[in-house]
Amino acid sequence: MRIFDLVHIHPSATKGTPSFFYLPAGVLGLLNELRAHGYSVAAINEPLEMAVDPSFKLERLLADYRAACYSIDIHWHEHLYGGVEVASAIKRLYPESLVIVGGMTASLFGSELLSSCPAIDIVVIGYGEHQLLEIVAGARQSRFKGRRVLITNKGPDGDIDSQDFVTDDFLLHADEYTQCSIHNWRRERDVNTFWLKNGQGCRGNCSFCGGVQGAQERIFGNRRVVRRSVQLVARDMIKLSRRGVARIALTHDISESRGSYWQGLHRLIRDSGESIGLYFEANRLPSRAYIESFSRTFDLRRSVIVLTPLCESETVRLRNGRRFGNEQLWECLADLKRCGVEHVLYFCSGIPFEDRAEQQRQTEFIREIQKATGCEFVFRTSLTLDPGSPMHRRPKRYGILRTLNSFDDYLRRCRLRSLGRSYDRFGYTLMPTDS
Prior knowledge:
Layout: E1 2-10, H1 26-36, E2 41-45, H2 46-52, H3 58-62, E3 65-73, H4 80-93, E4 98-102, H5 104-108, H6 110-116, E5 122-126, H7 129-140, E6 149-153, H8 174-177, E7 193-196, E8 199-200, H9 213-220, E9 226-227, H10 230-242, E10 247-250, H11 259-272, E11 277-281, H12 288-297, E12 304-310, H13 314-319, H14 326-338, E13 343-349, H15 356-373, E14 378-382, H16 390-393, E15 400-402, H17 407-418, E16 428-430
Parallel strand pairs: 1-2, 1-3, 3-4, 4-5, 5-6, 7-10, 10-11, 11-12, 12-13, 13-14
Antiparallel strand pairs: 8-9, 15-16
Helix pairs in contact: 10-11, 11-12
């Protein structure tokens, strides 16, 4: 049996089936902070373990991973039921150990998690770096024995530049983790990818997103985007490239940063001589100058920029939080094509304020883009109502009727999906428009 101070578990979104493989990028920073203070840690990615070994059972593995504390990320609502089930499995094996959960969804539903899941001892609301250190230190002294508590930390928690978001040798099957996409794992994946945290916070308030500025402020007390230093992001990218990572995915859009920031980062990457692929999702449209610099800096065979126009209608797009017009979009697409930068576009079905005529125009607009640009990857995806999103908090303002309202609703949804039964896929319906 291996003994640790803390074992972290990333739960599968669907019990018994591997799904939603990506850990929140900040988890590595949290666990490395513990290690820097002398604590022993391990991390298990449940969906990855299921994919690598179809006979995998979490309880069987945990029997060899004993710890004073077990932490579980319930960051995205998709992991709610899986996280609760993992907590219960831990408590059955190790009733004296502390079970800790955290993340955005855990922060939104902290008191409900404590009241509905006796296996959970502590919910950390907001940032967790200092809190996790105190909990692990307290576990050694039995300070939390018999207590079930919420611990809240709103506001900056330490220096983001002091944290290590790259070292992952404590993660079981760390190499295989770079071969994951969000939905699956493939050993022979052409381009292995590592998600690197390069900032925290958000500056926008898109209607559908649970991680917008308003949610960041309510959960973390953070109203702005905090970016890691150019030198450290470049250092980490170079380190990952030399480790054999072909594509680095950044958590935050660098194209919307100050010119001096992204220019400095690009310069350091070029000076390194490393061939690095880069992936990021743009909140706005990257400028022509940015795209041209991107094409000179990164390995274009392995690089992707994701754009999210949402819809064809500029008015509907603006009301949902995306502040650019179609003329700007066409110019950006032309620049991407001219510079040979692979790009992916996401449109949405079921977006607020869009009537049937606009839905039809969106379909025609997508065809027009594909014909004009040759872009192979244009997706039209449905939305699921994120807890904490503007749509969820102000449904009348966005013209929707919520069917996912409470913690119990989200937990039931995830449970039914895990059982292979019919479940509420979207969480809302659009109210009829006047047009």
